[in-house]
From TrEMBL:
Record-listed E.C. numbers: 3.6.4.13
Database matches in PANTHER family: ATP-DEPENDENT RNA HELICASE DEAD, DEAD-BOX ATP-DEPENDENT RNA HELICASE 47, MITOCHONDRIAL
UniProt keyword annotation of DNA repair present: no
Position of sequence motif Q motif: 8-36
Descriptive protein name: ATP-dependent RNA helicase DeaD
Top EC class for this record: hydrolase
Organism: Oceanospirillum multiglobuliferum
Amino acid sequence: MSSEEIVPSFEELGLPASLVKSVKDLGYESPSPIQAASIPVLLNGDSLLGQAQTGTGKTAAFALPLLARIDIKQKSPQVLVLTPTRELAIQVAEAFQSYARDIPGFHVLPIYGGHSMTLQLKQLSRGPQVIVGTPGRVMDHLRRESLNTATIKAIVLDEADEMLKMGFIDDVDWILEKVPHPRQVALFSATMPDEIRKVARRHLQGAQEIRIAAKTSTVDTISQRYWMVSGVHKMDALTRIMETEPFDAAIIFVRTKTATVELAEKLEARGYSASALNGDMNQALRERTVNQLKNRKLDIVIATDVAARGLDVERITHVINYDIPYDTEAYVHRIGRTGRAGRTGEAILFVTPRERGLLRAIERATRQEITRMDLPTREMVAEQRVKQFKESVVEMIGSVGADMDFFRNMVQELAKENELSLEDVAAALAWKVQKKRPLILPPEEIAPRRERDDRRDDRSDRGGERGGERRPRRERPTDVNFVRYRIEVGRNEGLQPGDIVGAIANEAGIESKYIGNIRLYDQFSTVELPEGMPADVMNHLQKTRVRQVPMNISIDNGPEQPREQRPRGGDRPRGDKPRGDRPRGDRPRGDRPRGDRPRSDKPRGERPPKAD
């Protein structure tokens, strides 16, 4: 089946009134093509094989009809959604919760690696109707028998091609075998490689197939740029950009309601006319904020995705994604607030190094390149302030009118009485006026250290200049012997030291002070842990996933390399290669132990955490 027709309303798809109300409250006016084609099929209880690009609204396409089929009185899992990444799992769970806002007693639970198993077990005992999880953690719960499959009526495989790329497709196959028949299965994928087709033939007999043609979603009149940020001083970066960009009005997007208020307060403290716009505000207050933006009483609005849906203000010239969205549909909606009706607009995206995958996912889905931008320098900020100051003085001279004679005479008398030049008097007045917004920036406002941090982060984004990256030393107990362990996850997966600490602390219950030095390499990492780790703890850590990859932890018997001997550039450090005597790729695919990740010469950092 191929469909591009959009029906007039959600009501005509047969959804319950409560769900129709929810989607309208969220700002959706009519279904997207994938929603219009999928919702009736899933409402009817049939299985579905859907092919559509990321950012086309697939989450609502399966969440709405499956919510309509849930027995809210039954406190046990009825729908299981598998996603390739924890970010997508969280986002899909949040979408289910948003759509079910008018369904009392509904409970959805995201489960993924790196999160407390004890907490997840407690939450599972409460009987959520919908489970959204990554394959590895779902397998853990199935082995523990903490996830009951007897009551599951529907399974969704979201971003199936990404699960294939990340080596999860065997895990997905294993999970599907554990869910008894009869069950409804919905598989969504941007592409349909042979491996996905094989899964469909095994588990989706008689499924209806829907294919939605890909198309560019963003507006050609919008210039799109991104800045690679360390994430530590985004506020300073935002201020520099706002100072140097010639904007009329701007909307800044963040992920949380709390962030809208905090950012608005910080911008107001720095002299900007800014206000928050979020879902906690009542309708009257939201309308008042939008009207103030239209009437030039506000210049900047800080908003969440939900609050900004349908916002159309002609004077918005800039959209700034302070927090990158987890899915491309949200990105397209955000930047669509500018460049409307043929006007030009500017879209700026803040991206931390670990979010590069999301950036690439957006570029692929929109089929448009987002240009990297440099952060405005301290000198550029000062030059812009001087320019604006001069313009304001000239504008003031033209608007003072008859009173100008009085002040002119006063200045001349002041200069004559004190034997001062008119230039000195003007300079002193200018200095007094600019005190709150200095034209000469003090060093502490934009510290040189931060400039160095930006350049260091830029090097990190290009892959670094050395093979290993040492984590700053922490104070650790002197009465404990530490042993160096190797884990099969590295910088190519976007790994950060905090990921390792969080996974080990949560999954093994080890306090952070007992986690020693950490080194990050491209394809693996090392971490020091106390000697004599219990076997059951090590077995559990073996299967624990970090950045969606099993740690496969083992004692590292390789020598620690002196700093001067570490390879630079693209050379791998000693031992940074697959283990075993067989060459990479020699082992047939079917022989790979379930849960092992596929090896590839392509850096895993190219693999984006996809989101719908």
